[in-house]
Amino acid sequence: MISKAHPISRAALAAHVYLLCCELVLWACVWTALLWLDGEGSLDLRCLWAFRIISWAVLYSLTTHIADKSVQPLLKRWVALQSFLPAVFDSVAQPLLQEIVRGFSPMPDPGMVILSSVTSSLIYLVWEVAFPHGGSAKGARIQEDEEAKTLLMRVIRYSRPDYLHLGAAFVFLSLAALFETFIPYCVGKVVDILSGKYQHENFLWATGLMALCSLGSSVFTGLRGGMFMCSLSRLNMRIRHMLFQNLMKQEINFFEENKPGSLTSRLISDTDKMGRSVAMNVNVLLRSLVKTCGMLFFMLRLSWQLTLLTCIEMPLLAFIQNSYNNLSQKTSIELQDCNAETAELAYSVIKSMKTVRSFNAEDQEKRRYEQILDRKLQVLKRKGIYSAVFLLIRRFITVGLKVEMLFQGRNLISSGQLSIGSLLAFVFYQKDMVTNMRHLVYIYGDMLNTVGSAVKVFQLLDRKSQMKEMGNLAPKKLEGKLTFEKVTFSYHSRPDEKALKSVTLELSPGKVTALIGPSGGGKSSCVCLMQRFYEPQEGEVFLDGVPLYRYQHQYLHQKVVMVSQKPVLFSGSVRHNIEYGLQDCTIERVEEAARKANAHDFICMLEQGYDTDVGECGDQLSAGQKQCIAIARALIRNPQILILDEATSDTDYSAQAVQDLLNKTDQTVLVIAHRLETVEKADHIIFMEEGKVVEQGTHQQLMAKEGRYYRIKEKLFTEPTNY
Description:
- The structure is a single chain.
- By secondary structure, the chain is α/β, with parallel strands linked by helices.
- It has 3 domains: about 1-140; about 160-460, ABC transporter transmembrane region fold (Up-down Bundle), CATH 1.20.1560; about 480-570 and about 640-720, 3-Layer(aba) Sandwich (Rossmann fold), CATH 3.40.50.
- About 65% of the residues lie in helices and about 10% in strands.
- The protein contains 24 helices and 10 strands.
- A hairpin with a 2-residue loop joins strand 9 and strand 10 (about 690-695).
- The two termini are about 70 Å apart.
């Protein structure tokens, strides 16, 4: 049953039948008139085209009276096809087939007229169901297809820099398809020579031509594949570079909301699918299209009757293939999500293996991983069932029509209209034609499928950072005065919880400021705003009286540097980690920074000194050594504002380096301190609690005040888990 919502509704079918009857009545009138005039009922191509134009005008005008506006676009397209397709076929067939079919006339008998009308209608109905137009059908599926086509064109636009490679590949593709199309024709000639009176010269000519076509097809196929693969590699590199570059511009909130495994999957797997949608699929698409045109030419020369039978098979297969593609596209999207989830889980478990092992959670993680694999298995089973049913139906149609074609071929051979070699060549062409048509429909669906998998890639490519764009301010001299003015801030994941509540504070140049308070008081939030990882919802953070966002990005993060309590090192050498982010940094600068950080001695004791690989995340070094290298990484930049988040917590080496720095500094230093001796030596102490600045002053002033700092001082500096 065809529902009312379907593009081919009952009203549309009724209108089709009515117009078809009108077409047959018009043709019968012309037929009768010709018989009355010359008794033969024939006309030349000029009269045929004149009649088709008149027929189109009449039927086109009828569509506005017999159907409502919702189905008129559908009927108008069918009228154009019904009116002009037979005329186009006759115009092409007459010069091609006049040597084969004697007495060919553009005016066929009434049976052929009915067959032509029914065939045109069948082809159009199948095409409308398989590839509905936006004007004739509206719905989620149509909108999704249109969006996929738009994305596909966008991927193709990314291939513009490779137009020379793609142009050369298309030339090689056309030549390879041309040579390959001639091979069945040569085989038919060889069979005709062998089945009739043998002529040695003709046999040598036919076999030589077949060998030449085979060689040309092989050579140009290889060149075509190489050029397309080159274009694919360049496209993948270009898209990955663009995506990685845009990811680096996103705000920190983005990376907190999107897990690393998922982003990595988009960057590697989905970008590869985007490349395939252009380079690999376009390769097959163009090859099949060129070969189809060439084979259709030879098939019409051999037998227009068998060609017509083949044209009935192709729309049916196209409809079945398109239906299968729609189901396959849905399962492919589900598989994509399962693969991303699997990669994300495996990445998180492997990265945190120490934590998993310490909490004896191996079995739990195994079950989680097994559940994801079970979901993926169910999707694969469903996809396999779709594939099996599709192959069964396609095979039934193909075999049935091939048997009918052989019966028809036998009749043509008996009547002398076709030779045995020509029939064999036609069978080869018919087989390749069906395969190419299947490729055309499949590749079309697969291109939409692979582009659909790239939707999230495009979303990431188009995403703009939600933070204010950085300015270009980069003064040669910076005092280092950092000020918070009534700053209110909440994290994106917890918008209702205020991490900072109208905070006002100041860091003075050349002085050490200690920021202390219990856990959750707002210390880390202040540090994140100083580095402009986030932006406050209210108030502003100023550097030398200028908002932070007006400074140049590179300049700001060279002048404001932080050493965290648990620093992150990257896989590579010690030198690479110290000079990280700097260009053309000499070894002398690296060693000088290492000496200031009290790290030079233990670095020299490593197996390869500054060239020693620190391992993944610095696992080859102790916690104290990592802190010293992190301090050196900060000092090599000569920052004007230095933030130390308990950078002395692990070893005396780093503690000594920080104390030397605090005693000699002319920088603005902020210390999130958990040691009383560090706080006592600070020039200024800011005590924060519950997102507010509770008290400020020197150690002596706060102790004399006997306020909040005085009451919980013992707890702050004896229970490190509370800050």
